[in-house]
Write a structure and sequence with these properties.
Helix content: over 70%
CATH superfamily of the largest domain: Na+/H+ antiporter like domain
Largest sheet: 2 strands, antiparallel
CATH class of the largest domain: Mainly Alpha
CATH architecture of the largest domain: Up-down Bundle
Number of strands: 2
Structural class: mainly alpha
Radius of gyration: 24 Å
Number of helices: 18
Strand order of the largest sheet: 1-2
C-alpha cells in the first residue's frame, strides 16, 4: 500500500496517539491542568464568563434556555453516559459481568468502594447542605485509572486490568443509580411519562429487529433525552437507558461471515484488473458487499461504542474537564482545604476507596468466599484500591449536582483533584512494586 506524506506525517501519528491506551488519561489531565492555569491567570474572569453564555433551542415559542456550562453537563455528558451505558450492556451481555463467578470480586470491591467513602464523607458533614455531597467520593474515573495502569506497560497482569475495568463499570452503575434517585430536582410527571413512551418505542424497536443506529439516535435524543431534560430527572439517566436498548445481536454469525467473505475475496481475485487506480464496476460491487457483510457481522452496540469512544475520550471529557476543573487559588484557599467538604471528599476518596476495596476483599479472602484472579497478589489489590480512588470526571460531575453554593463546589473540586493526584502516584508505585512479587 502506497504511503503518502499526509499518511506518514499527519494521519498515522494521530491514529497512534488516539489508539495509545494512556492517551485519553493524558488529554483529560492536560485539560484539567489548563483549566486550573486559566482560572488563576489574568484571563480568569473571561474564562469563567465563557461558561455562562446563554444558549437556547426550541421552536414556535417553546425554548429550553441554559448556559454553556449546563449544556455541557446535561448535553455533552449525556453522550459520555450513553457510551458508559453501551459499555455496561456489553459487559453484562458478553463481558466480565456475564459470569456470576467472575463478577463477584469486582462487584464486592465496587460496593465496598462506594459505601465506605460515603460514610466517611458524612462523618465530616453529618448535616446541613454540605451533607448532600456524600455521593462525590463514591465515583471512580475509569479513563484516569486505566491510563495510570497502562503506563506500567505489559508487566501488569491482564487479570488486574480486567478486575479494575469491571470494578469501574460496576462503580459507574452505582453512580448512575445515585444520580437517578438522589440528585434529581422536582419531577414533572407528564414529561417523565412522555420519556417512558419513547423508552417503550426503543425497546419495541429492538425486539422487532430494527438495527439502524441513526433511528435510535433520533428517538433517543429527540424523544427520551429531551423528555428527561424537562422532567427533573437528570438527562444523563436517559442516555444510559437509551444505550440499554441498542441491539447486541448480529445479522450474520461468524462462520457464515467467514464463508461469504472468502467467496467474495475469491471473486475479487478472479476479476480482470483494469490497470488504473479506479476499480472495475464488478470489483466495486464486491467491495460494497464486503462492507455490508462486515457491518452485519458486528452488533449495532459494538459499532456505536467503537465510533463514539474517541469522541468521548478526546472531545467531550476534555471539554467537561476544562469547564468544571477550574479551581481558583486565592487567600481563601487555605480555608477551603481545611473545610469539612474538602476533608469529606479527600479522605473519602483516598482512604474510603482504598479501605472499601482492599479491606472488604481481604475479609472475603480470609473467609475463602472469593479468590484473587490468576496473576494477581494482595499488593496488586491494594494498588487497585488506590487507582479506584481517582474520582475526577464522575466526582466533579456529582459535585456540580450536589451543591448550589459555589464555595462548596470549589472545596469539593479541591478534594477531588488533590485525592486523585495522590491516588494516581500511590497506585502507580504500589502496582510497580507488586509486579515484582510472586503471585499467590
Amino acid at each position: 500500500m502506497k504511503v503518502t506524506p499526509v499518511d506518514k506525517w499527519i494521519i498515522d501519528p494521530i491514529q497512534r496517539f488516539i489508539n495509545n491506551s494512556t492517551t485519553s488519561g493524558i488529554v483529560l489531565f492536560s485539560s484539567a491542568f489548563l483549566a486550573i492555569i486559566l482560572s488563576n491567570s489574568p484571563w480568569s474572569h473571561e474564562f469563567h464568563e465563557l461558561w455562562e453564555l446563554e444558549f437556547s433551542i426550541g421552536f414556535d415559542g417553546h425554548y429550553i434556555n441554559k448556559n454553556l456550562h449546563h449544556w455541557i453537563n446535561d448535553g455533552l455528558m449525556a453522550v459520555f453516559f450513553f457510551v458508559v451505558g453501551l459499555e455496561l450492556k456489553r459487559e453484562i451481555v458478553a463481558g466480565e459481568l456475564r459470569e456470576p463467578k467472575n463478577a463477584i470480586l469486582p462487584i464486592a470491591a465496587a460496593i465496598g468502594g462506594m459505601i465506605l467513602p460515603a460514610i466517611i464523607y458524612l462523618f465530616f458533614n453529618p448535616s446541613g447542605s454540605t451533607a448532600d455531597g456524600w455521593g462525590i467520593p463514591m465515583a471512580t474515573d475509569i479513563a484516569f485509572a486505566l491510563g495510570v495502569l497502562y503506563l506500567l506497560g505489559n508487566k501488569v497482569p491482564l487479570s488486574l486490568k480486567i478486575f479494575l475495568t469491571a470494578l469501574a463499570i460496576v462503580d459507574d452503575i452505582g453512580a448512575v443509580l445515585v444520580i437517578a434517585f438522589f440528585y434529581t430536582s422536582d419531577i414533572n410527571f407528564i414529561s417523565l411519562a412522555t420519556g417512558g413512551v419513547f423508552m417503550l418505542i426503543l425497546i419495541v424497536s429492538n425486539l422487532i429487529g430494527i438495527r439502524n443506529t441513526i433511528y435510535y439516535a433520533v428517538i433517543g435524543i429527540g424523544g427520551l433525552w429531551l423528555a428527561f431534560l424537562m422532567s427533573g430527572v437528570h438527562a444523563t439517566i436517559a442516555a444510559v437507558m437509551a444505550a440499554m436498548t441498542i441491539p447486541v445481536n448480529v445479522k450474520i454469525h461468524e462462520k457464515e461471515y467467514i464463508k461469504r467473505i472468502k467467496n467474495l475475496i475469491f471473486k475479487f481475485e478472479e476479476e480482470e484488473p483494469n490497470n488504473n487506480p479506479a476499480v472495475t464496476p464488478n470489483q466495486l460491487h464486491i467491495i460494497q458487499d464486503i462492507r455490508d457483510y462486515s457491518k452485519s457481522a458486528l452488533t449495532p452496540l459494538q459499532r456505536l461504542e467503537h465510533r463514539m469512544h474517541p469522541i468521548v475520550a478526546f472531545v467531550i471529557m476534555p471539554i467537561f474537564a476544562l469547564s468544571n476543573a477550574g479551581v481558583i487559588f486565592s487567600n481563601d484557599s487555605f480555608s477551603q482545604i481545611v473545610s469539612p467538604v474538602f476533608f469529606g471528599v479527600f479522605v473519602g476518596l483516598l482512604l474510603g476507596k482504598v479501605l472499601g476495596v482492599y479491606g472488604l476483599i481481604s475479609i472475603l479472602l480470609k473467609f475463602k468466599w472469593v479468590s484473587l484472579p490468576e496473576g494477581m497478589n494482595k499488593i496488586h489489590l491494594l494498588g487497585a484500591g488506590f487507582l479506584a480512588a481517582i474520582g475526577f470526571t464522575m466526582s466533579l460531575f456529582i459535585g456540580g449536582l450536589a451543591f448550589v453554593n459555589k464555595v462548596h463546589i470549589e472545596e469539593a473540586k479541591m478534594g477531588v483533584l488533590f485525592a486523585s493526584i495522590l491516588a494516581s502516584f500511590a497506585g502507580f508505585f504500589i502496582i510497580k512494586y507488586a509486579n515484582k512479587i510472586k503471585p499467590i
